[in-house]
Amino acid sequence: MIGRSRIIGVLGLKVLGAVFALTLSLIISRLYGVTAFGLFAVALTLSNIGALIASWGLSTSYMMDHSDNDSHGKMAAVLLVNTSLCLLCAPLLWMFATHLELGHLSSIVFAFIPFSILGAKAAALAVRGKQILNAALDDLARNLLPLLLILVFSHLFDASGDVRNLTSAYLISSTLLISLALFALKKNVPASEFGFVDAIGYLRRCGLFLLKNGSTVTLALVLILLATQADRFFLAKMVDGKQLGLYAVAQAAVNLISYVSQSVVLTITPDLVKALKCGHSGTIASISRRYSILLVAISAALLLCTKMLGHVYFSLYGIEEEMLADGINVLLVLLLGQGVGHLFGFGMTIATHEFDRKILLITQIVALSLSAALCLALIPQLGVMGAAISTSTGSVLVKIVLWICYRKRNINVGVF
C-alpha cells in the first residue's frame, strides 16, 4: 500500500509547485499585462496538447508491462517514438498558434517537447517508487525554472512589456527541464533499457501493441484536455484580450487543486494498477474513496477562500476593479465543477490503465461535444462566465458517466 510519508512528501512538493506556478502567472501578468497572460495560457494549452500526442500513451504502456523480463531497449524505444512524434507535431502546432494570432508567444508551443519527455520520465520513476523525485521535477523545476529566468531577463533587459523576453525565458527553461528529466532517467532506469539496437527489436515485437493502445489513450487524454481547456480557443476568438486574461487568471487558481489531484493520481496509480491486475475491487474502492474525500475537502476549502479573498487574488494580477466581481464568480464556478467532479473519483485513471476503449472514447467525445456546444451558445451571451459553465459541465459529466459504468461492474471509484 501507499506509504503515508510518501504521500505527505509528494503532496508537499505539489503544493509548493502550485505556489511557484501561481507566482509565475502573477509575475507574467504584472510584467507583460493581463492580455499577454491570456495569450500565454492559450499557447500553453497548445503545448500540452502537443505533449500528449508526442507521448502517445507510451507512459501508460510502460507502467502496465514494466515487470516483464524482456525489458531491453524499452525506454530507448519510448524516447525514439517520442522524438519522431515531436518532429511531426511541431509544424502543425506552429500553424495553429499562428492562426490564433498569438504573435511572438506562438513559440511557446515548442515547450511541448520537454513536456512530452516528462511523461516517460514520470512512468519510469513511478514504477520504481520515486514519486518524490517526480514531483520535484514536474512541479518545482517546471515552474521554478521559468520563474527565475523571467525575473532575470526582466532585470537584465529592463523591458518588461516585451513578450519576446517571456518567450526566450520560457523556452530556455524548457530546455533545462528536458536535460534534468533525461538525467533522472539515466540515473534511475537500468542501462539495458537504453540500447538503440534493442529498441528497434522492441518496437518490432511490440510496435503494433503500442500503436493500437497508444492511439486510444492519446485520443482520450487529448479529449480530456480539450473538454477542460478548449474554452480558451473559443475565448481567444470571441472576447477581447482583457476578458481572456481574466479567465486565464481564474484558471491559474484552479490549477492549485489540479496540481494536488495530479499528485494523488500519480501516487496511487501503481497500487490501483496492481489491484486491477489482481481483481481486488475492495482495494480499489478503499483507495478511491479515501483520496476522493481528500480532494473534495481541498476544493471546499478553496471555495471558501475564494469567497472571502477572491478580490485580493484578482487585484494582485492587475485586474481592473470593475472586472473583479466577474473574475470571482468565474473562479467559483470552476472550483465548484472541480469539487463535484472529485466526488466521482478516479474512473478515468482506471479506464486508462484497463485500456477500456469504449468507455474512454465515448465519454470524452460526449463531454467535448457538450462543452463545445455550450461554449458556442453561452460565450456570446455570458462571456467568460459562459466558458466557465461550459467547462465545468463537461468535466463533471465525464466523471459521472465513468462512475456509473464502474458501479455497474460493482467497482466503486469515488466517494459513494
Q: Helical amount among residues, as a percent range?
A: over 70%
Shape: globular
How big is the Rg? 21 Å
Largest sheet, strands/sense/barrel: none
Low-confidence stretches: none
Order of helices and strands: HHHHHHHHHHHHHHH
Approximate strand percentage? under 5%
User: How many domain regions?
Assistant: 2
Mean pLDDT score: 82
Count the beta strands: 0
Q: What assembly state would you assign to the polypeptide chains in this entry?
A: single chain
Number of helices: 15
User: Whole-Å distance between the termini?
Assistant: 22 Å
Give the helix/strand class: mainly alpha
Question: Characteristics of this structure?
Answer:
single chain, 416 residues, mainly alpha, 2 domains, 15 helices, 83% helix, 0% strand, globular
Quick rundown:
The chain has helices spanning 4-32, 34-55, 58-64, 74-99, 112-126, 131-157, 163-188, 196-229, 231-238, 241-278, 281-316, 324-342, 347-354, 357-382, 384-408. By secondary structure, the chain is mainly α. It folds into two domains: 1-12 and 31-229, no CATH class; 239-416, no CATH class.
